């Protein structure tokens, strides 16, 4: 079971990283003394001579926090592979999922691309992915865990894990102190109050209490409302595992609180069109009190936007201050092979290179993500990065089961919530409409055989944590 595996990996990481705390590994690619983004080459290796026509493959990703490191890895592959393969890396900064759909519908899909826990099963159903079972070496089969529904679907492997991410409240300790706030908020009411106080003392200097990257509502709510719902005991995608139906009622207090901060003027101006990197840039400059995001943030504030402030991460606030569910530990897959690739052999050689030990170890040690591969987490040093301690896995971090993916008619729930946040309306009626449309879509998906799900009356979100 995936939850059980996640518990093992989290426990392994905690034991090894804490033992390694304070140690220096100067031979590691992640060490601070002149470390290179490129993976270490074997002794005596030289750049091979190449001639003839190149085999070109295209790799797509929506990840930006690790962009510079991965660019270096891709360049290293291009420079050193002996098969005359050249990889073009494309970073899609906006609407990645929609770009994938458009690319495949037009026959221009990438050869290799990034998949996530909430997209991989959908992509398999749509026929975008090629199984990789026949390509896996014995070493890879032994090294990488098999995680049902997250990288193995209907008995076939489509991706291997690299890293997982925790979610936390990221906050500016300087602004909190200036506003007289002794500790980060543990409830929605405390978060709304803290945002108002920070704005009151910071507005003259252009600093505000709260923001999320609402240029993309799915991304914004996916790193905020989703995890607040989950630690409060509700499914983060609106699906109730106990009843086997969609029910967005658990989001009511969350969305009302977000709207309250917006109405109070406690949110960063222009937040409605803010992307995640501009948000990070504002936070690094001391213009933002708090936001919610993934454990990639420490690496961002070391490498991408060097922070000029004293900041930290804290557990995500719950609706009423009481923890009733687990905080999402996301991951279990990374790269996948396109079913439409005309160069599957070359694409696999690139994927196999990307899953190399040194690359995964460096990825972890640079703080881009917490390794989910036991053989990597057993030897990797704890990332020596400011702010990482607040993101380390705790007993309350765990993986939720997968919610069923449905194609709903009309406006999607995150867009509906964002529209309400900005313009108001009857939130109760909005939630009722969402429940009706999403359950109609669920019934249709079950009838067609695209989704298999059932009520689990015994489901208890308080027992998901790695205890």
Looking at this protein, list some descriptive labels.
single chain; 467 residues; 15 strands; globular; disordered N terminus
Helix content: 25-40%
Proportion of residues in β-strands: 5-15%
Tell me the Rg in angstroms. 22 Å
The low-confidence parts are 1-49
Quick synopsis:
By secondary structure, this protein is α/β, with parallel strands linked by helices. 38% of the residues lie in helices and 13% in strands. β8 and β9 (245-246) form a beta hairpin.
Describe it.
With 467 residues, the protein is of the alpha/beta class. Helix content is 38%, strand content 13%. It has 17 helices and 15 strands. The protein has helices at residues 2-20, 67-80, 96-105, 120-126, 138-143, 173-178, 188-202, 217-222, 225-231, 252-263, 276-284, 297-304, 344-354, 357-365, 374-377, 413-423, 427-448, and strands at 55-61, 85-91, 112-114, 152-153, 156-157, 163-172, 208-210, 239-240, 245-246, 288-294, 311-314, 327-331, 335-337, 370-371, 397-398. The strands form four sheets. Strands 6, 7, 10, 11, 12, 14 and 15 form a seven-stranded mixed β-sheet that branches. A four-stranded mixed β-sheet has the order 2-1-3-13. Strands 4-5 form a two-stranded antiparallel sheet. Helix 10 (252-263) runs parallel beside helix 16 and helix 16 runs antiparallel to helix 17. The two termini are 15 Å apart.
